Each structure stands twice: as structure tokens, then as C-alpha cells.
Amino acid sequence: METYTNLDSKIINTMRLLSVDMVDKANSGHPGMPLGCAPMMFVLWCKIMKFNPENPLWEYRDRFVLSNGHGCALLYSMLFLLGYNYSLNDLKNFRQIHSKTPGHPEYNKELGIEISTGPLGQGIANGVGMAIASKKKQLNNNIYVMCGDGCLMEGVSYEAASLAGHLGLNNLVVLYDDNGITIDGKTEITFTEDTRTRFLALNWNVLQVQNGDTNIDDIYEKIMIAKKSLDKPTIIFIKTTIGYGSIAAGKSSVHGAPLGQTNTQTLKEYFGFDKTQSFFVDTDVQTYFDELKKHKVLFYNDFNANNKANNNATRTANNISNIINEIDKIKNQEKDYATRESSNIVLKKIAELLPDIIVGSADLAESNKTMVTNTNINKNDFTPKYLHYGIREHAMCSIANGISSYDIIPVVSTFLVFITYCLAPIRMAALSKHRVIYVLTHDSVFLGEDGPTHQPVESLTILRSIPNLLTIRPCDVNEVSGAYQIALDYNVPSAIILSRQTLPNIESTCSLKMKKGAYIVYETNIDEKLELIIIATGSEVHLAIDVAKKIGNTRVVSMPCCELFDEQDSFYKEEILPKNITKMSLEAGSTLGWYKYADYTYGIDQFGESGKIADIKNHFGFSLDKIIEFIKITLF
Amino acid sequence: METYTNLDSKIINTMRLLSVDMVDKANSGHPGMPLGCAPMMFVLWCKIMKFNPENPLWEYRDRFVLSNGHGCALLYSMLFLLGYNYSLNDLKNFRQIHSKTPGHPEYNKELGIEISTGPLGQGIANGVGMAIASKKKQLNNNIYVMCGDGCLMEGVSYEAASLAGHLGLNNLVVLYDDNGITIDGKTEITFTEDTRTRFLALNWNVLQVQNGDTNIDDIYEKIMIAKKSLDKPTIIFIKTTIGYGSIAAGKSSVHGAPLGQTNTQTLKEYFGFDKTQSFFVDTDVQTYFDELKKHKVLFYNDFNANNKANNNATRTANNISNIINEIDKIKNQEKDYATRESSNIVLKKIAELLPDIIVGSADLAESNKTMVTNTNINKNDFTPKYLHYGIREHAMCSIANGISSYDIIPVVSTFLVFITYCLAPIRMAALSKHRVIYVLTHDSVFLGEDGPTHQPVESLTILRSIPNLLTIRPCDVNEVSGAYQIALDYNVPSAIILSRQTLPNIESTCSLKMKKGAYIVYETNIDEKLELIIIATGSEVHLAIDVAKKIGNTRVVSMPCCELFDEQDSFYKEEILPKNITKMSLEAGSTLGWYKYADYTYGIDQFGESGKIADIKNHFGFSLDKIIEFIKITLF
What we know:
Chain A is α/β, with parallel strands linked by helices. Chain A is built from 23 helices and 20 strands.
């Protein structure tokens, strides 16, 4: 049995047992991590971090990210005790539907959840994004990330850590729960690298706590050393015992299954608690947190008295509607552009006008046309609006989520086909409704000679299948401007899909009309009988119009954003796509998703070919003649 | 001007200029890498590697992987000179449609292309897979991977390298083209880590060649040291000058654009070549390669005389049809299983019978139910059939592609939602038609309390949008057996999608019928008028039957594999899904792809919820009452 030399360790065990009770009550969850990590969680929040439970949105607060999100029972226990907006009942509803305490942390700053986590490794990259954003906003705060073995094994954390070291993010501190256990057993079955040396090689400070189960002084000292780092991020290896104190301590079995009544009672006895009581917070523990909260509020008031209130949020919001008006002035002109080039024109204007923006690319700035400034963020200067991410698509998109949580708009770019490298953070952005703009160029087989490894065919379907994400494929300058207006206007992520090749301007395109997702861009003379509607996007809109002109009796609908069209009322939908008219989709990619709107589809359901664009067009039947032939044979 | 001290450097410059001529003629491609890497390519193939151009499939050959696939002009030049099945005309057709020389290497062992590459970092992980496969087959050969900065920045290469170090893959040698340049500029703008120390930390040998542009003796010596490694993989940092010899040498501009006539002529003069000649191979160079080929054939004949021919390929093929018969005996029994549990039964049988199989999971063996043996591959023993991949989904799937290239069937597993971590190698498997089996469990929101970060909704649509990939979602034991039979039978990758929750056996399911992708599992009495067809998959099939029984006049079609159904003739399609009957899909996920088959869809087009399965079913309307209500209101 453990004896209490001070209140601290009673508090820690209270946190441990609250977490264990939560998992037991839910009959589902992860007790192993909370038992091991309660001491570091306690030290961090109660002894070190800057925050105010009464104003969780205080901009100057330190940020906490639980990269090993499965351990969230511990975080909810902590936030409850600190006086965030959780009741004991919320803890009892752990993992129940519509509760404040879901199975993994879900982005909700009001509740102290700075970002959604769960998929391993993401949190470290999110933390890197926050650290960059924090430096850009000159908030002089710290970002603390807690993580486990899994987070460090994932490639995304390596990518992000390499960039963090490069940028010298001294405001970032990673607390690594070094418990030597993963789900399948001991880490030694797969993970025997010298992680300390690896992080040293990445230009990080590496510190160690030998006994993270009980030595809270050591944890405190090491975090304080990390806080004082001048030019490097810090990782602290904290040796803990998974399931500390329990019968399954040190075993992988305690990771993801409730202890159960008997084992939990034994554990409570071990910690000197009444084994018959659950969700127990003793009076002295409660008093401690009441005092702590007072202290935090006092500090906050002092801080605000000494610093002018920051109105960044309002400033950004105001600016965005102005910026939308400004970029709406960018219209089709004499010259034809590739849509990636029009994108550059629009993006430059946005970057000029918007203070809180960070544009970047995964080493394809020239190809993605995302260079918008002459200066780049570097370890000595975070005021520029451009960041070179390196060839790190996964980290880039996870970092973007962290940046977005600071109300800075991240614009990140790569080739469309490489969403396969970063779909996890794109999904997380959609789930959490981060306003991230993905600039995805080289949007079809028509990119040419680089061949099928670089030619997307399924990518648009993939993006459109993700809830909350707007996938926008504009066809000319007007629609590119409209695409960015939409992306800025909605509090969700947007993927703007752009061509490598030059596309003709279309007279009838309209940045306003496109906000309904789809609209008519061509129609045969009104006295002709309408026999066919071709629904096209991006590079296929002008082709559809050429086809329509040739065959007559045809309407062309540009549908740059299916998701927005789906949101329109049935009257508008019927106006654009009347039920009784045959419809055909035309898009140089997978047809799977187009049957939702069209009776017939014309697309590409196989991988691409390396070759000249003209040969590729011919091979895949994307020519006037081939399409007209298809229509004549199939439809009429 | 360079002077030739020996034939070697003339050959190297011949390779350089062939590559430059190829890019110039195509007016597209990457001259920078070939100019820098020709010396190491030459040393590797001409001085070190074991192969036979007359039998490119020789099992004991060394393998070469071009992870920086954009430099393939150099590889094609090399293979042409070595006497592989390329003509000078093939080089002249570089990057032209249907040529043997596409813009990035495309898997074709007959042509010396051991694996498709292009997306950066993949090749390193592919090489790790080959090295594992090679040890498993006890071939005693080497795997050589050439890579650039981008490959090392990508997280997938870190994950794979960490596992390679753990497994002590001493047969793996990575030649790192350390040229300090990426597309966006110098690597120092994003990549300043100490990569040497990082690889040391990963348990690799690290060697260095200071002058890779001309010092071929040093390259040779270092590779020979690497070959002798007893227990570690080796990376050789080879300092080169991108675009060596050209006017843009050392600049990022030479990476991805043709030099053009003038610059190429200057370069030819610099190398002492006739500037007016293109695609030039001098007589002494040709003689060298004629001799080399004779020598290689001789070595091959000697080797075969001393070693019995290996009939692995035939053995595997024979076995597979036997195994399909064997697992067909696994049928529905009294007990109900989760399909992940049925999968375990089938997979165990396959692993017992198939010699050339490697099963593994990304640290979720217990959850994925992929534990099939009591022994695991480890650094001292590669004969077991199970490999713990660690929490490295991306590397796992890339490694699987490398394993597959050795005609070993890799079975890799994780949660369905985590395809977002490894979609790049899944796409590459589909593109190259690798027979990889993905075991993807926890296949819907019904996994319960872990919540939306772990609950797939869009994943099935994503997989179905990828060409050449079979996505199979079985509903009970019969169909699980059938799913594996399909996966074993087709030379393409298959994703087998499995439930966490227990599902009832269905009397009418059939492992044979399901091979047509979709078939009837329930039909109201024949004298009733058929009014509705419900198309369902996996966990929704039994629910569909319950609905049909309640409302009458309804057929239920189980459609475990849309891709196979699409391949059936129109007669069968009309038989199963007659045009004039109303159809409705029922699947607990994104509806986007279902309009292809159904007039109405019933699914989940939003992210999930953390909660008890019963609450989730109720919330998303997956109950008998809710579905019947929908049918009555919407359809009739």
C-alpha cells in the first residue's frame, strides 16, 4: 500500500481512480494510460500551465494536446477537477452517446479540448502547428503534447518532429509516456530503435524522468528545463508503468479493457481509498482545486490588466468578408490560364489582405503555384506568410489542423494524387471542421507524362465521400475566385482542385451562381426542346459546352461543388437538373459518385497513362468526337 | 572538359547523355538525377549486382528499387545497355503513351522493373519488404534501393527504416543521392536534421561517399562494405551534384525540366562527346556491355548448375487452388461470429496450408484477429508466418508490396478507418496488381464507444473508387470464406472488410454465388409481386432480410463485392437487379457510390458518435422500425 506524504499524490490517485471508475462504468475504454500518466498530467496542469477555466478561450493560454487520445478519461478527470465545464455526471457518462466525454477527445475549446485526437501521431504534428501559430501570433505561450509509443512509431510524428527541430520550436514540449508496452505486447517486439538519439538528431532537447509513476518533483524540474529552451523543441522521456498500481500493471492487457469491479476495488485499497466508493473526490482535494482556480483567475486578471486585450478573432472575421469582396473582382480576362495559375492570382491577393494566413506546399510551390510572398517563415522570423513544409504531406496537413485551431487559415498544397499521403489529417479536419484550404493541383490524367503514379482518377470521389469537406473543382478564373470565396466563407475544410493545363475562359461562368454548387453555363436556344443535360466540372466544362453546341438540344451544368448543390432546396435542384431530362456526367475521373446526379456517366475508371496530353485525351476518349459518339450510341 | 582515364567514366557519361537525350526528346522529364546518379548506377549494376538480362525473373537475382522514380531515364538507359529487352527506340519513346519507358517506373519484372515507384519514400519501404521476403525464401541476395532527399523526408521511410533496423535486415542497402537539392530549393530550407545520426539510432550502418560524381572506386568500396554487414541494413550517403556537368549543375531548376538543345550540346562537349550526335553509344562501350552480358549469363549458368532450380512459383500456384477448396469447407455453423472472428478461422487455415504467406497487423493483432501462429518473424528467424509491424500502417502496406513482388502473399491488417494512413501503398498495389490482402476490421460506426475518430463512414466508398482493387464486405462465415477465396484467386489486391460485432449466420449465403459479386439471399414467396429490392452488404444483410420479411414483396441482394458484380454480363445483372423494380441500398456508411445500383440509398453520410452500439443504431436509424418507416414514406 502506498502512503501519502503530501496532498499531491492523493490528488494524482484521485485522478487515477476517477479514470478507472469512468472506464468501469462505461464498461469500455482505456485504464492503462491514465494510471501511468496521472502524475505528469497533474504536474503539467496544476503546477505549470497557464490557463483560466473560466475563460477557456483566453488566447494567451498554454495549449495541451493528448496525442494518445485513448487516455482521455484522465484528461476529462483533470478538466473536471480544474473547474472546466464538466460535472461529475459528465464523467459518469463517459463514452455514452451525446455526452461531453466521448471515447476520444473531440475538438471543443470551451471544454478545454484544443484539438481532436485518437489516430496516433496526429497530436504531435498538431502541436507543431500550434507552436508555429503561437510564434506567428507572438503569444509567448507553450504547447504541451502528451504521447505514447504509438505516436512516435507513426511516420507523421517523425515528419513533424523533423520540421519542428528545423524551425527551432522552443515553445513545444512533448511528454512521452515511455511505458514500453503497446497493444500487441512489449515495444521490444517491434520498436528497438534508440529514440533518444533520433530526437537529438532532429535537433530536439531530450530529457528523461526515470520514475514517472511517483517522482513528481523530477517531472516538474524537467518540464521547467524544457520551458527554458532557447532554440529547440523538447521531448521528455517519462518512464511509467502502464496500469500502475493495478493487478495488470506493466502488461498490455491493461491498455484497452476495463479493470472490472474486483480489480478496481483492490486498486482502491492499494491507493488507500475506500473501495466501496466510486467517483470519489475528497474534501481536501476539492479545496485544493477551488484554491487553484482562484489563483488561475487572479493570474488571468493580472495578465489582462498588464496586456491589452487582443482582438485578433474579430479582426479576422471582419477581414474575411472584405477579402471575399476584393477577390470577387478577379474575373476572366483575355488570357487563358491553367486554374492553378488563376489560383495563384487569387491566393496572392488573399495573402496580401489577410493577416492570419500561412500558405505552404510540400516542396511543390512552383508546380502548385502557391508562392505568394518573397519571404518565408524560418526559425528566426515567423511573421512571413509562407512556410516551406518539405516533402512531408502527412505532417503538413496535420500541422494545418493545429494552425487552424489558432484561428489562422492554413493553405496547404500538393498534387491531388498525393491526398493518399495525408488523408488521415484531412479526415480529422473535416471531423473537427477546421477551416483548412487544400490547394490540390495536377487534377487529372491530363497532367501528362508523369504517368499513372501521379495521375489522380479516384481522388475526387475520395474527397467527396468525406463528410463536412467541400470539394471544389473550378473551370476558369471566375470559378477559381468563387472557389476561394466559398473556402473562406465556410467554417469547414475545402479542397480546391486545379488543373495543370491551360483552360479556356467561359463567358457564362459566375462566382456568385457557383455558390449554389451547380448552375447552368450553357443552354441551347430556348425554342429547342431540351433533350440532354451534361453535368461537368473543371477542365471538362468547356468540353461539355463544345459537345452541346455540336449536338444541340443540350444544357450544360457546371457543378464545381456537389456538396453545396446537395444543400439547395428541391426547387433549385429541379430547376437545374429537371427529373424528366436525361442527364450525363462528364469528368476526367472515377464515375462511381456521379450516378447520384446522372443517368449516364462519362469518366475514367482505370489508372492513367504516361504520355502527351493529346495522346492521353485520345486514349481515354476525352475528345469532341468520342463523346458525341457515346451520346449517340448510348443515350439516343 | 573532363578527360577519360578509363572506360568506366566514358560509360557513365554515355548513360548520362542517353538520359539527357531522352528527356530532351520527350521535352519532359528529370535530367538532374541521372546526371548526378549515373556513377552509382553504373557501379551497382556493372560491378556488383547479381542478375541475368536473359532471365530477368531469375529468383536468386539481386533486386534494384528506384525509390526516386522520377530519375527513371537513367534506369532505362542502364537496362538498355545491360541487354534487357529495350531497344534504342524504346529510349527515344521515353514518356510516350504505351511505351516501355513511361514517366515513372511501372512494375514489370521481365523488363527489370522490380516495383512501381514515383510517390516518394515508397521504394525504401518496398525494399524492406523485399529484404524480408528474401530472407524468408533464403535466397541469399541483396536488395539495393536508390533514393533522394524526398524519400528520406517522407514518414513512410522512417517507419520502414525503424522496422528494418529492428529486424537487422543486413541484405538491404540504400544508396542515398545526397545532393542537397529539392524542387523548392536547397534542402536546408526545410531539412536540417542530422540524418546520419538518425539512421545510426535506427540500428543501421551509415557509410559515406564524399564525391559521388566521379569517385567510383569509393562508391564500389562502400557498397562492398555494406554487402558484408552481418546484422544491420546499410545506408550510404553519396554526395552528388544534381545536374552534374550541365549549366544548371547544383540548382533545383535542373531537377524536372529538359536541358534543351543548346545546354545539352554544351554538356556533350564538356563530356568530350560529339555534340551533334544523340542517343550515342560508342563501339567500345557497346563491347563492354556485350562482354558483361556474357559474363552474367555464364555466372547464372554456373549458379544453376550448383543449385537446384527453385520451383516456388509453381508450388504457390498449385497450392492456391487446393487451399481455396480447403477453406470452402469452412461454413456457417451453430454459433454466430463477428466476421473478424470468422476471418481468423479462415486465415488460420490458409496460413497452415500456404508456405508463402506473411500475415501481420499494425499492432492490432488481437482486435483484427490476425494471430494465426505462435511464432513470429524476428531478426534471428524469418521462417514464421507472422510479422508484427508495429504502429506503422503506411510502412506495413508499402512493405506488403515489396513482399508481394517475391510471390509471397502478404496479409496486412488494421482498423478500416486507418486506410487513411496507408492509402498511397494501397493505390500502388492496385496500380501494379500486387496480390495483397488487407484485413480491415471495425468496419462501421457500430464499433461503438471509440467514437468518430475510429468509426469509418467513407472508407468503403474510398476503396471502391480505386481501380483494380476488390473491396469485399462479407456478412457471415460462408461469405468470409468466399471473400478469402476471391482474394486468393485474383491477381489483384483485395480488401476484406469485417465487423467488430457479432453477426447472425444467414442460411442462404453462399461462397460460390458471391463470386459474381452480388446474389439473391432472400425473396418473398414466388407468387407475391416483387415491389422492392434491398441491396445490402456485411452487417446490414441480416437487417435487410428482417425488413423484407416484415414488409413482404421484397428481395434482398447481398452485394459483398461491387467490382465483381460490375464484371458480370447484362443478363446476370438484370436477373439479380431487374431494371423495372425499385431498388434501395442499405449499408452503414457513405451513400455516394450506391446510386450506381439503387434508386434510393439508406446509409450514413455524417461522422459517427461515441456510444453504445444500441444507441448508435438508434441514432443513425439502423433499426427495423426506422428503415421500414423510410421505405413507407419515401418509396411507396
